[in-house]
Every structure is written in structure tokens, then in C-alpha cells.
């Protein structure tokens, strides 16, 4: 019985890895297409129980938005799709009025892209976001140090 459970888990992991490969391939294809138009700002917002969101925003040298594509979903079946409504606007001067038509995760991803462009334009590096596991370990370590 235990061997069947191991085989089931291994099979599920292989299928997820296989499908994840195609998701990354799809993302890279869209990134390359947008990269031909200019710089590409990437904004991310992880969803915990909701769909995560990744935005690819093609911008010119003046930070004017040329095209936006979005990948949103909770599974490896989510794909990159065009997103309308921001073309022609200045990425660094977006207002709440520009963003009110989008869901919270999309707005957060747009704000992440803006922050990333500001960091890069000043010569900085974008900090790597910690995983849920890393954050939990950090919290547990801090609690032990306090006690």
C-alpha cells in the first residue's frame, strides 16, 4: 500500500513538472516577443489561496506602455494573455483612476512592476521574494531569539 502512495506522489510530481515546463516556455515566448518592442517591466503578486498574477509590460525609453500581457491563475494551466487598458500611458505616472478597473492582485502586480522599474532605473537590484517556507522559518527563528 505504501509503495502505491509513493508511486502516486512521484507521478503527480512528474506531471506537474512536465506541465510547469510548458507554462515557463509560454511565459518566455511572450517575454521575448515583448522584448523586441522595448524594455519589459515584470510585476508579480503571489496569491495564497487566490490566483497569482504575473504581468509583462513592454515600455519604451520614456516609460510609455506599449503593451501589457498577463498570466493569472492557480494552476500550471494558466497562460499569458493580452491585457487591455494601459496602452499609451506612462508606467510611472499611473493613477488610481487608471487602475480601478482591475482586480486587487492585478493592481498589486502593476505596482510591483512600477517599483521594479524605479529600482532598476536607479541602478539597484530587485530583492528576491522569500517563499512561504522561508518566511515561516524566519518567524520561528525570531521567536526563539526573543525568548
Q: Secondary structure elements and their pairing?
A:
Blueprint: H1 2-35, E1 39-45, E2 52-59, E3 65-73, E4 80-83, H2 96-99, H3 104-121, H4 132-146
Antiparallel strand pairs: 1-2, 2-3, 3-4
Structural commentary:
The longest helix has 34 residues, at 2-35. It is built from 4 helices and 4 strands; from the N terminus they run H-E-E-E-E-H-H-H. It has 147 residues and is an alpha+beta fold. The model has no long low-confidence stretch (mean pLDDT 87). The chain is globular and about 60 Å long. The chain has one domain (2-134).
Largest pleated sheet: 4 strands, antiparallel
Order of helices and strands: HEEEEHHH
Strand coverage percent: 15-25%
How many beta-strand elements? 4
The N- and C-terminal alpha carbons lie at a distance of 44 Å
So how many helices? 4
Shape: globular
Overall radius of gyration = 19 Å
Strand order in the sheet with the most strands: 1-2-3-4
Oligomer: single chain
Secondary structure class reads alpha+beta
Give helix % range. Answer: 40-55%
User: Unreliable segments (pLDDT under 50, ≥5 consecutive)?
Assistant: none
Amino acid at each position: 500500500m505504501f509503495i502505491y502512495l509513493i508511486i502516486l506522489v512521484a507521478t503527480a510530481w512528474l506531471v506537474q513538472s512536465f506541465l510547469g515546463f510548458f507554462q515557463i516556455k509560454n511565459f518566455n515566448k511572450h517575454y521575448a516577443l515583448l522584448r523586441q518592442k522595448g524594455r519589459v517591466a515584470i510585476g508579480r503578486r503571489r496569491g495564497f489561496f487566490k490566483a497569482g498574477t504575473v504581468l509583462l509590460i513592454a515600455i519604451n525609453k520614456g516609460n510609455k506602455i506599449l503593451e501589457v500581457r498577463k498570466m493569472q491563475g492557480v494552476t500550471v494551466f494558466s497562460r499569458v494573455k493580452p491585457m487591455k487598458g494601459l496602452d499609451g500611458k506612462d508606467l510611472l505616472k499611473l493613477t488610481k483612476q487608471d487602475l480601478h478597473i482591475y482586480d486587487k492582485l492585478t493592481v498589486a502586480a502593476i505596482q510591483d512592476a512600477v517599483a521594479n522599474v524605479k529600482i532598476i532605473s536607479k541602478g539597484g537590484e530587485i530583492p528576491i521574494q522569500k517563499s512561504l517556507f522561508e518566511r515561516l522559518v524566519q518567524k520561528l527563528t525570531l521567536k526563539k531569539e526573543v525568548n
